[in-house]
Amino acid sequence: MTPSLKSTLIKAVLPALIGVAVVVWLFIDDFNPKAWNLLHFDGRTVVAMVACLIFVAGRDFGLTWRFRTITDGALSWRRALRVDIMCAFTSAITPSAVGGSALAIFYLNREGISVGRATTLTLTTLLLDELFFVIFCPVLFLLLPVQELFGVTADNVFLRGVQWVFWLVYAGIVVWSAILFTGIIARPRWLEQSVTRLFTLKWLRRWQRQAAEMTGNMRATSAWVKAQSRGWWLKVFGATTLSWFSRYFVVNALFWGFVPAASGLLVFGRQFVVWVVLMISPTPGGSGVSEWLFTNYYGDLIGDLSLALVIAMIWRVVSYYVYLFAGVCLAPSYFRRRQTAAVQSNDK
Fold first, then answer.
1. What 3 state SS string does the chain have?
2. In the chain, which stretches have pLDDT less than 70?
């Protein structure tokens, strides 16, 4: 076993242990064995679980389609899916603030895409994801009252905290999206010049080289994306929307199966809030934080914290642990192929 593979497998165990530990803690604190009696497994729940798996597949299809489209078909469907799974696996074993998208450059390069082009493609996917959040948030607030979306009451400090965290993170997303949009679409040369001047300041000079690399990559990305057709943009943004909507619909399917009385639109809207809040989770893949947030945030819609915890566990299994398991299975061959390629290169 190579050192990198061993390290990866060890990192895969950590988030699983954190998630299990928090679930056990929640079970001890909130779980009532009678909650199992509230789960009615019938034809409806079977359909709901099948729908969950379809939406999980929809998430992967959307991102695989996007990788294949932005590489102009240079990646086959199988190789694009492999990049998607490895990015999801990386997200599962790193803090949410880091995420797996940063390593997409490495995975694309492993599939034969040059480092420069892989950087351009990764910045493009990053811009698409950020634009989705920026555009969809106002639409969501037009459809749902703020009071319902956050479930805020005068005496619920937790839900008020969720609301504050959401707005702080969303503000950060807007600022970062504005930087990306300016550097890639609107005025790349102006941003490059502005950043260059800014990082000549004494207390920023130590990061001058990294800032120059970032703006240089943005300028290269700008030249590439501006050459793309309107149809290309519709495809890649459509694939982005499909992947995120599928992610949210996993929870909608669970509620349809176990809590059919809950508003589907409200369940969907709260998933948007959950994913924004989880962007700053300090734990790998949001382990522990996700289960705790889901249980408390959806508790008022479900009516029983014990049942909410059970549904949260099912949600995490199909939307998180499946990628942890898939990555652990894929990583050995992935790193072994990398090592073999390196040996062959040295032999030449």
1. CCHHHHHHHHHHHHHHHHHHHHHHHHHHHHCCHHHHHHCCCCHHHHHHHHHHHHHHHHHHHHHHHHHHHHCCCCCCHHHHHHHHHHHHHHHHHCECCCCCHHHHHHHHHHCCCCHHHHHHHHHHHHHHHHHHHHHHHHHHHHHCCHHHHHCCCCCCHHHHHHHHHHHHHHHHHHHHHHHHHHHHHHCHHHHHHHHHHHCCCHHHHHHHHHHHHHHHHHHHHHHHHCCCCHHHHHHHHHHHHHHHHHHHHHHHHHHHHHCCCCCHHHHHHHHHHHHHHHHHCCCECCCCHHHHHHHHHCHHHHCCHHHHHHHHHHHHHHHHHHHHHHHHHHHHHHHHHHHHHHHHHHHC
2. 1-40, 96-102, 152-155, 335-348
Give how far Cα 73 sits from Cα of 113, 221, 334, Å. Answer: 11, 18, 21
Identity (one letter) of the amino acid at 97?
Answer: A
**Cβ(190)–Cβ(179) below 8 Å:** no
pLDDT in tens, 272-301: 999 999 888 877 777 778 888 888 889 888
Burial class (CB in 10 A: 0-12, 13-18, 19+), 208: middle
Which residues does 320 contact at the CB level (< 8 Å), separation at least 6?
Answer: 19, 92, 285, 286, 287, 290
Tokens of 195: 């950043």
pLDDT value at position 347?
34
Token reading at 237: 């943004």
Q: What is the pTM of this model?
A: 0.85
The radius of gyration of the chain's CA atoms, rounded to the nearest angstrom, is 22
Q: Which tokens hold the place of 198?
A: 């800014």
Sign of the alpha-carbon torsion through 273, 276, 280, 284: positive
